[in-house]
Amino acid sequence: MQTPDSYGSMLELAWKGTKPLTMPAGETRVFLKDGDKVSIRGWAETKDGARIGFGDCTGRVLPATPIAEAAAAAAGTPSA
Length: 80
Fold this sequence. Notes:
The protein has two helices and four strands; from the N terminus they run αββββα. The chain is an alpha+beta fold. The strands form two sheets. A two-stranded antiparallel sheet has the order 1-2. The chain has a two-stranded antiparallel ribbon with strand order 3-4.
């Protein structure tokens, strides 16, 4: 049975943006914003209870890079 604590993304928790989530400071959100800090933890468990995981993985959401700049950077050439 799926419960909110088993969902794997904010998109699932907010039901595709239709159910805003209340943040600790009282703000409501449906998607991540630039500057947000995101921490992910994960593990798998066997039927007999053996567990394997990867610990915390934390990062910050950065503003999108314009496509021309990203393509130029990937190609190693200056953008126009």
